[in-house]
Amino acid sequence: MFQIFNLNFDNFYRKENAPKFRIIGILLLVLGIGSFLYKGFGIKIVSWTLAITLLFLAYLNLKNLNELKRYASKEEISPYNRIQFFLLVGSVLLIIFPNRIQGFISLVLGLYIVYSQLIKLLRGKNNPYYRFTMWNVMVLVFGLTLVFSPFFLSNFIVSILSLIIILIGGNLLAIGNKIK
């Protein structure tokens, strides 16, 4: 049987793998600390990662599109063509303009959150069974923060991902030193 990947984790923690664990751990620590200290660098990495994800989704959509072209009509295929176009344009924009696109995404998300909370407030004004609670106020404030400071969400995501990368790098470094 043909296998592309061999994921056999037997003898994974062997002494020969200790330098590899340490090198990967140090690289992840440097990357995590760099993106935590320099948020612009981290935002670019997050944007490029999202662009790669969009390219992968475009590849999967293209496979479906090629399968559909065999037997489906043009009306059935046209939504897949539109999805393909938006995935490719989105990935190119995320690669070329990472900071502006992240700010635009945060702005649109903030406007949507504010709009949805205001609609809930207006609809629940005359409804005795619905109350605009403290949670709704917190979500509204979060939405307003995204509108007035569009890089808040990007910086927050970069901080969380940087801490996760630092923890993984520290763990791999500790494993490399332990099995040495």
Characterization of the model:
By secondary structure, the protein is mainly α. Helix content is 81%, strand content 0%. The protein is built from 6 helices and no strands. α2 crosses α4, α2 crosses α6 and α3 crosses α4. The longest helix is centred in the N-terminal third of the chain and has 33 residues. The radius of gyration is 23 Å and the shape is extended. The protein starts with 17 loop residues before the first helix and ends with a helix. The mean pLDDT is 83.
Keywords:
mainly alpha; 180 residues
H/E element sequence: HHHHHH
What overall form do the CA principal axes indicate?
Answer: extended
Number of helices: 6
Which class of secondary structure composition applies to the elements? mainly alpha
Helix content: over 70%
Largest sheet: none
Task: Tell me the quaternary state.
Answer: single chain
Record field, number of beta strands? 0
Q: Separation of termini?
A: 36 Å
Low-pLDDT sequence parts: none
Radius of gyration, in Å, reads 23 Å
Overall mean pLDDT: 83
Proportion of residues in extended strands: under 5%
